[in-house]
Amino acid sequence: MAKKIDIILTSQPFIGFLYRFIRLYSATLRLNVENESPWQDHLEQGGRVLLCAWHQQFFGAIRHFQNYRDLKPCLMISKSKDGEIIAGVALRSGWEPVRGSSSRGGREAMKEIINKLKETGLAAHIVDGPQGPAGVVKNGLIAIAQYADAVIVPFYVFADRAWHFNSWDRFFLPKPFSRVTIRFDELIHLAPAEDETEFEAQRESVQKKMLPHLHR
């Protein structure tokens, strides 16, 4: 029975239905976007941008991020069953999924996303996904940014009314017709790390910058 359910949930008809539902749901949200122009200017000037967020907050950004489809952006998504569904929605939203995570296929996926980031200039990364721990920036973010020579731009999603689920990351879902703010942080330029100690210091600095915006 469980296998049949998994087949249904990962089928193209269901993913297509889910994508249309998300679009309708997201259309009810009243969006406000802050500080978007600095990273877009950097991109237009030939720079590369790696957008990043906490796993709990990505849903609230789906509607707005469809506006970037012409830039041919990419996003790393795990090879799990949940990842299969998310990848299908991302693809329909104009984002090219690169399948892999720290626990499965991560090295190959990282090489692919670095190459695509060099080609298109724009990618996104969930810093603590897909299984956490919540609030911990994983090494992949720093490695991708350095190898692709990209700036890191964290973004945060807030809502005046939302549900927080009892999941590992307290997944955050804005309620219908709520006011949602997507706020982009400053551009973070990281020089290539000389050793593991410097690399860890860079990871910790990004984590420290993002932690105050994690919904507890």
Report on this structure:
With 216 residues, the chain is of the alpha/beta class. Helices cover 41% and strands 20% of the residues. The strands form two sheets. The chain has a seven-stranded mixed β-sheet with strand order 1-9-6-2-5-3-4, with helices on both faces. Helix 2 crosses helix 5 and helix 6 (106-120) packs parallel to helix 7. The model has no long low-confidence stretch (mean pLDDT 92).
Runs in which pLDDT lies below 50 for 5 or more consecutive residues are: none
Strand tally is 9
Shape: globular
What CATH architecture do you see? 3-Layer(aba) Sandwich
How far do the termini sit from each other? 36 Å
Record keyword descriptors for this entry.
single chain, 216 residues, alpha/beta, Glycerol-3-phosphate (1)-acyltransferase, 7-stranded mixed beta sheet, two-stranded antiparallel sheet, 41% helix
Précis, in short:
This protein has 216 residues and is α/β, with parallel strands linked by helices. The chain has eight helices and nine strands. The strands form two sheets. Strands 1-9-6-2-5-3-4 form a seven-stranded mixed beta sheet, sandwiched between helices.
SSE order and pairing:
Blueprint: H1 2-9, H2 12-27, E1 30-34, H3 37-44, E2 49-53, H4 62-65, E3 74-77, H5 81-92, E4 96-99, H6 106-120, E5 122-126, H7 139-148, E6 151-159, E7 162-164, E8 172-174, E9 179-184, H8 196-210
Parallel strand pairs: 1-9, 2-5, 2-6, 3-4, 3-5
Antiparallel strand pairs: 6-9, 7-8
Helix pairs in contact: 2-5, 6-7
